[in-house]
Amino acid sequence: MLSSSKTIRPALAVFAGLLAHAGAQTPATPVKGTPQAPAPKRSLGGGEYPDYDPAAVERGHKLFVTTCAFCHGANAKGGETGPDLLRSVLVLDDENGNKIGQVVLNGRPDKGMPKFSLTPEQISDIATFLHDRIKAAALRGTYQILNIVVGDPKAGEAYFNGAAGCSGCHSVTGDLAHIGSKYDAVGVQQHIVMPREERYGRSRGPVTAPITVTVTMPQGESFNGTLVRIDDFTVSLVDSNGDLRTFTRNGDNPKVEIHDPLKGHIDLLAKYTDSDIHNLTAYLVTLK
Question: What is the CATH number of domain 212-259?
Fold first, then answer.
């Protein structure tokens, strides 16, 4: 949970062009080598859905977090610059990565999205994760939350103060004091696995400081402000006067430094095990 200031790789915008591409109705050619599965039955109206392989969903989630979460959020519901992929027509029409793969492998140069090298298996896993998320959203009315406090509070406390590094930024007598009284177990766990949610009004948690950026020109002049958009070709920010500034990028020129207060949280998403999440939840809910 440590926050840090590091440059976010522009390649994290891998899915930024998905919705822009969604309007095209030209039939997509399956990605060469991509494992093909029978067309799943899915309907936003509550039709049948396949049972997705849990291992593939987990692999796809981890890969999505490390490559796409900066733009689209850790759960694909929208992020800093990317849209909600669970509502994307292209994703809804995709079968085992055949349409998603075309966009990922070919890029969208006109939209600032570079080509991204993923194997057919990785594309299939990401597609499986996205379709599983769509299924969960469509069937949310039938989902029942059971008791999720199944972890070990002592192990959670050790993880908080040790491997996770939470205590480097948070204090159980400060910002996290009485968190177990402020939120139920579901709310606590949601803050762990979806740290950006409060930034979009989807949570009752405190508003997190925005991502900021410093752009330093070759001559030494620098500009600071709230990050609006970044890709391989441009970076845009809003300065303290409220003015929008956009700079053309050519490799490392100008120098761009991203300051994300949730960087540590996002990094942990790719490292958490189920036990880590349950133990951390079990510990935090004891902080009454």
Answer: 2.30.30.100
CA distance 94 to 101: 9
- Angle, alpha carbons 90-91-97 (nearest 5°): 105
Q: Which of 80, 45, 265 is nearest to 169 (CA)?
A: 265
The dihedral sign for the CA sequence 77, 82, 83, 89: negative
Domain 10-142 has CATH 3.10.450.50: no
Dihedral (Cα; 262, 266, 268, 270), 10-degree rounding: 180
Express each pLDDT in 13-71 by its tens digit. Answer: 334 444 344 444 444 444 444 444 434 444 444 457 788 999 999 998 888 887 777 67
Q: Tens of pLDDT along 165-177?
A: 999 889 999 989 9
